[in-house]
Amino acid sequence: MVVKGKLKMALVAEKDVDFKKLNLKKKEKAARKKKAQKGGDKDKPESNGKVEEAWVDVEGGAEDSGSDEDEGETETAPMQIDFEGIDESDSDSSAGENDQDNDLEDDEDDEDIPVSDLEDLDDEEKEDMIPHQRLTINNTVALTAALKRIALPTSKLPFSEHQSIMTSAPVVIEDVSDDLNRELAFYAQSLSAAQEGRKLLKAEGVAFTRPTDYFAEMVKADEHMAKIKAKLIDEAASKKASSEARKQRDLKKFGKQVQVAKLQERDKERSKTMEKIKDLKRKRQGADTETTNEADIFDVALEDETAKPSRKDRIGPNKRAKKDEKFGFGGKKRFKKSGDAMSSGDLTGFSSKKMKGVKPSRPGKARRASKK
Amino acid sequence: MSAYKALSKSNGDKQEAPNGIKKNKQRVLILSSRGITYRHRHLLNDLASLLPHSRKDAKLDTKSKLYQLNELAELYNCNNVFFFEARKGKDLYLWMSKAPNGPTVKMHMQNLHTMEELHFTGNCLKGSRPLLSFDASFDKEPHLRVLKELFMHIFGVPKGARKAKPFVDHVMGFTLADGKIWIRNYQISETEPSKVSTSSDGTDAKPKVKKNADGKETEISLVEIGPRFVLTPIVIQEGSFGGPIIYENKEFVSPNQVRSEIRTKKAGRYNQRAEQGVERLAKRGELGLRTNGGRKAKVDELDTGTLFA
């Protein structure tokens, strides 16, 4: 029995059977044994010594406990016995047979145990575990063979047969999520290919450029192209409209000031012409031609410099303009006084002191006393 | 004569022309599985319109018995199969195969945009032969070289294709970036160089001046046509829809996994919050701050209750 156990251990070491499974099984068995003992089976303790080493034998003993848990065990048992049979019968088995064994072992391994179930294992047991990982398959030999089978002899064929061009240097794209630069790299790659391809095709005498009078079915039908065109026009129109609207908004902001300035200018002009007319009238009367100089007649701006500032030209608070600004003069009156983002953000008029109200100052003690 | 025809027909891929040079002869069977969305269908139509050497077939009924495609390809005299497999009505997988005896490539298709939804102004002749532009990184690894060869066979229109048109007016770009293959399709537009060199419209066109054969200079610029898509190679099989797997992309994460991770992350947020609540209760109980449950606070000697009891 002991010999068998040693043999088994050697085998196990050779095949590196996963210990966790064995351990789990052992634990299960121990639990079952306890059960059996509680049941009052006195025969069991004799075989206990053997149980630790040769677990296959125990199963025979354990089976007569007759519990349902055994079913899973009995299914696997014959297979394991088979292993032993094979390995013991010819201990110096050939490599081919070993391979077979390993295959069987793999089959067993396929029913993986989730890692979460193994957390309660000891540390030393955990060391033996190998977490399952997807293997990289990259069979270079098979790949090259497959390539060789299907490859076109591009070096022997004329270029016009395959029309494929490799870039001289690999295209490097630093950040694939940077749309603009990525597309630019693709574009540059294709452009260089187009140029090189044209050269090669021209050299081989193959028609490259489509003549303008060659009409044929296109990939995109006419209605599709019309749709694209409509979309482009639509886009341009909306862009233009939005810019126009923005301009209008800006104008509206300054419109008031512009209007006021214009009116003032007009007023000034009117008064100036009136003055000139008056002067002319006086001249006609021939009363004082000397007072007006020749320049005035010829409308020279000299007068503006010399003339003393009139009432209208006076710089100072323009009451009318202010009032116009306040109450409105021309244009829409609606929503003029309504607040907007600008006005509500304006905190110049805000004062916490004012908000609290002005407290009347407390009179002195004597005065207070006298009031009483 | 008929014997020669029969011979040449059976020998699909490369045909021995009378002068001894092998000819590039390709035919592609294009079809999809059931359960593709309208976008997948439109993309398939776009690609079929770009490939005059293709034969479109009805949707394949089965998703498990893909080897049936080999028989279909034989039926239609095709030596390439281009198969869209849709899963869950949202994920699209692209199979490309050399029909009778492989290899087969399975790829995951992402970021697909059909011609219709892209609104690009480019256009090209239906059935003109494209220039194929490959990134140099395609030559680096054997599996990429296999991929390149397959792209060349399927997307390159062979010279003698029946419906092919004579001029070359578009270029297809295959670029490798981030472990994925990005595919773009551009129109080659040649314009007479304008007198003012700065008049180039700066949207997509970068003019390059080149000497023409007859001394005239024409500028080549590209205008994108569409469609656009990105492929992630998953698996390469040795046979056609069968045989051993000779390459597997370890970096590929299936979209199912991505979705489930997002879901568990969302669920995790709630779990974390619930756990925090329980922890907080326990902590407060430990400090004797709860009215019922937990540990009672130690009675202090100086408490008013004990002092004036």
UniProtKB/TrEMBL annotation, chain A:
A Pfam family hit: Ebp2
Bias kind Acidic residues: ranges: 54-74, 98-127, 291-304
Gene behind the chain: EBP2
Organism field: Lachnellula occidentalis
Comp. bias (Basic and acidic residues): 38-53, 240-253, 263-278, 305-327
Keyword field: Coiled coil, Nucleus, Ribosome biogenesis
Residue ranges, compositional bias (Basic residues): 27-37, 353-372
GO cellular component: nuclear periphery; nucleolus; preribosome, large subunit precursor
Region (Disordered): 27-129, 240-372
GO biological process: ribosomal large subunit biogenesis; rRNA processing
Compartments, as annotated in UniProt: Nucleus, Nucleolus
Family in the record: Belongs to the EBP2 family.
Main location: nucleus
Name of the molecule in the record: rRNA-processing protein
From TrEMBL, chain B:
GO terms under cellular component: nucleolus
Basic and acidic residues composition-biased segments: 203-212
Gene3D superfamilies according to UniProt: Probable brix-domain ribosomal biogenesis protein
Family: Belongs to the BRX1 family.
Keyword terms of this UniProt record: Nucleus, Ribosome biogenesis
One Gene Ontology term from the biological process aspect of the record: rRNA processing
Pfam families: Brix
Domain Brix as annotated: residue spans: 26-242
Skewed-composition ranges (Polar residues): 193-202
Subcellular location: Nucleus, Nucleolus
Organism of provenance: Lachnellula occidentalis
Protein name, entry field: Ribosome biogenesis protein
Keyword Transcription: no
Region span, Disordered: 1-21, 193-212
Purpose: Required for biogenesis of the 60S ribosomal subunit.
GO molecular function: rRNA binding
